[in-house]
Structure formats: C-alpha cells, structure tokens
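Marked as duplicate of an earlier ticket. Keeping the data here for the record.
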Amino acid sequence: MKITPDPIKIKQIHDYYKANTTLDPERGFLQFDNVPIIWARTSLLYHMLWEVQALVGDAAVEVMHRIGKPYGQNFFEMSANHLSKESQSPAKDDFLEYLAVETAAIGWGNISIEREGDDIKISCENGFPVGLLTKKNRDLAEYPVDTYFLGYFEGFITAWQGKDYRGKEIECVGKGDKRCLMQFTPK
C-alpha cells in the first residue's frame, strides 16, 4: 500500500493554520490557537541542551552555542539580501532593527538591542523561550540555558560587524533572573 497526501486536504490544513494563527505583540509570540508556535522548536532546543548535558556535562553549553552561531551568520546574509532589495545601501542599524523585528515575529520574544561603542547588549524582558521552558519544567538551572540563541545572535553580530564577536548571557530567566540579557564584545 502506498499513501500520498491529498492536495485538497493539505490546503484544508493550511487554511486552518492560517485562520488560527495570530501574533501576540506584547510577548512577540506567533501563536496557533493561543500556543506559541516557537514552542515546538523551543522544546527541541530545550531537550537537546539537557540530553547533550547528560552526555558531555557542562560542555553542552558550548555545543549548543556552536550550533546556533552559523545559523545567525546565515540569517544575517538573508537579511542583507532582503534589506538591499528595499534600499540600495541600508544603514548599519537597519540590520539590528530587522533582527529585533524578525526575532519578535517568529516568536523568540521582543528584544531590545543597545550599542555602546563596539559592545552590544541584547535583552529580552520576558525571557527567551528555552529559559522560559526551563523555568516551567524543572528546577532552575545553575547556568544560563539560552546558549543556542546566544550563538545565533553572536553569529549575526559577527557577520554584521565583519569581525569576530563573543557573547555571554549575563542574566537568564532559566536560572531565576527577571529577564535574559546577553552581552557581545569583539574578540
């Protein structure tokens, strides 16, 4: 027996998803029936962190960090292509604004980005998804848990600035802080 998807049923499901998907602008979550869509990816990243941690101990933090960095670099390239279509030469801060807007639109949360010289801080007042899920599902972590997101932002900033940056999560809701705060400095 061979089973293939019926195009009419595929369209019905797509239409159902479109009709029941909303954006919570306060939290920056894209939602399906009031459940943040990003929770599926969040759950994956959450379980990856803790399973890798069970296998390799504290090195899991660096593993997840390294997984996120190339994704951030690739996203910068996509952003550059998108912004160059809108403007012949986008301003440097246009890239940071695009990063903040996209981060909210996909449900990772509303972030603010501050530049002080070469240093950059990214904060999420409500917390990033893995930290929120950690807070919800287990005892608080001993260390920041948004390492994938840290790598992602580090990759974006590195590509945007054209020089290598290193990030550190200073505050994390997953370890009991009120917000998530990441700081990035050139290497």
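See parent ticket for discussion. The chain has six helices and seven strands.
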